[in-house]
Amino acid sequence: MATNGANYIPDRTINFNVTADEGNIFLGVGTVDLPEIQKMTDTLSGSGIAGEVETPIPGHFQSMETTINWNAITTEALNLLRDGPVSLTFRIAQNEINASANDNKVKAIRIHLRGLVKSSALGSAEVNAKSEQTTVVETTYLRVFVDDEEQVEIDKLNMIFKVQGNDQLGDVRKALGLG
């Protein structure tokens, strides 16, 4: 996106942090594999179609997994194993290079997600090495902000899908009598 005539090119993550419970508990994390947003599809074929076409089902998504890779075994990671949903916030400082000038810009990325912990691997024990414990969260709610502007909201359990504030499932909910 251009800002004041500048051509900013996304470069890399400068740093990030992860908090649980809406930002109140800081989690010491090594890396995070954020969820893949993959639409559910079905095969369309029949009269007048020369073959098959995989068509996306509006507002429906395949399983979305978030994997948290911890540096060490932590009580915070083990606490996520409790029954019920977990709520996590990822804040990313992303570097962008100005191709038209000699400066950089920091873009703020904020990702909120909720879900259910599917697994937790304690990792390994090795002298002078990270344990590499992992936690996998089945992500049922995802909301992405770029510089405090909402870009995407997916709430599978409440049938909500928005892109830049545009409700993609409003007509579907209305047809189903859901408001």
Q: What's the story with the biggest beta sheet?
A: 11 strands, antiparallel
Strand portion? over 45%
Helix content: under 10%
> How are helices and strands ordered from N to C?
EEEEEEEHEEEEEEH
What is the overall silhouette? globular
Uncertain residue segments? none
Mean pLDDT, rounded to whole units?
91
Distance between the amino and carboxyl termini: 35 Å
Query: Structural class of the helix and strand makeup?
Result: mainly beta
Number of helices: 2
How many β-strands, per DSSP?
Answer: 13
> Whole-number radius of gyration?
20 Å
Summarize the structure.
The chain is mainly beta. The chain is built from 2 helices and 13 strands; from the N terminus they run βββββββαββββββα. A hairpin with a 2-residue loop joins β12 (160-163) and β13.
Descriptive labels:
single chain; 179 residues; mainly beta; eleven-stranded antiparallel sheet; two-stranded antiparallel ribbon; 57% strand
List the helices and strands and how they pair.
Blueprint (H helix, E strand, L loop, with lengths): L1 E2 L2 E15 L4 E3 L3 E3 L5 E7 L6 E10 L3 E5 L5 H5 L6 E13 L5 E18 L12 E13 L2 E7 L4 E4 L2 E2 L2 H6 L4
